[in-house]
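Human:
If only I could read backbone structure tokens as easily as an amino acid sequence. I am handing you a single protein, as its sequence and its fold in token form. I hope you can help me see how the letters and the tokens relate. Thank you; the sequence and its tokens follow:
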Amino acid sequence: MSSRINKTILLSYLFLFLSQAMVSVNIVASKSIIDKIPVFLLLEMRFIFATFFLLVTVATKPKMLKSLKELSQTDWILLFLQGVTAGFLFNVFLYTGLHYTSASVASVIASTLPALIALLSYFVLKEKLSKNKYLSIFFAVLGVVVINAAKPFDNSNNLFGDFIILIALLPEATYYILVKLRTIKIPITLQSCILNCINMALLLPLAIATTDKSTLQAIQLKEWGVIAIIGMASALFFSFWSKGCKNVSGANCALMTATMPISTIIIAMIFLGESLMWVQWLGVTCIIGAIIISTRSRS
């Protein structure tokens, strides 16, 4: 029995890691085309592709749509809030902040996300934090800071941009808490489809307002391919995170967000040919150590 439970928990951690890997795919893929496509158009096309992929899956399973009848008004409100926080608000604030500050500084600020989620778990979900949890959160944040602080900084930093990036973390952390707050009893694929539809609808007016016909015509086939990859990653993120967090505490889920820089490094090394400094390897070791400490403590 305990062996089956351990396998379930390990699988949950794998799904959480994969969800952060999908965030990394978005970062690396978006980096290659962000200068060629307006931000709101890029985000809108990302969610259009994500919705398309998920609708194709849902269409093959007619019984899945029938489960919509089981959703209460509270469920719909919660789904809307999840879509607004993780998709719309987080991305709008993030990309706005990046206009005024460097990506390196933004990464360092984002390294506080595990601690922020853990604090919200404590106050909102009433999850008690053991000494091991405090220690693991400390090492997770330290590891991410070390990874990002080792990168070269430029002189374009701006306090306004830094503040906007910090604000972006609030809706992101809120999403992680909302998922743990209440279990929505519909298939995860359908739930992910709804979230992406919400983001697609919210971003549509902004995309139309900032895009003209010539911009669309200038997008090349290769760039459409990258957008499709980003869309698929967006679709999988919601699915992976929802599956993973079912059997893992909010504090441990918070720790798994610290694996995002690790997966970003791996993907960047493979596809962008980037190398890793020894100091960054130290940061990776801190994050892995934090996860090991956390899994040894009881939720």
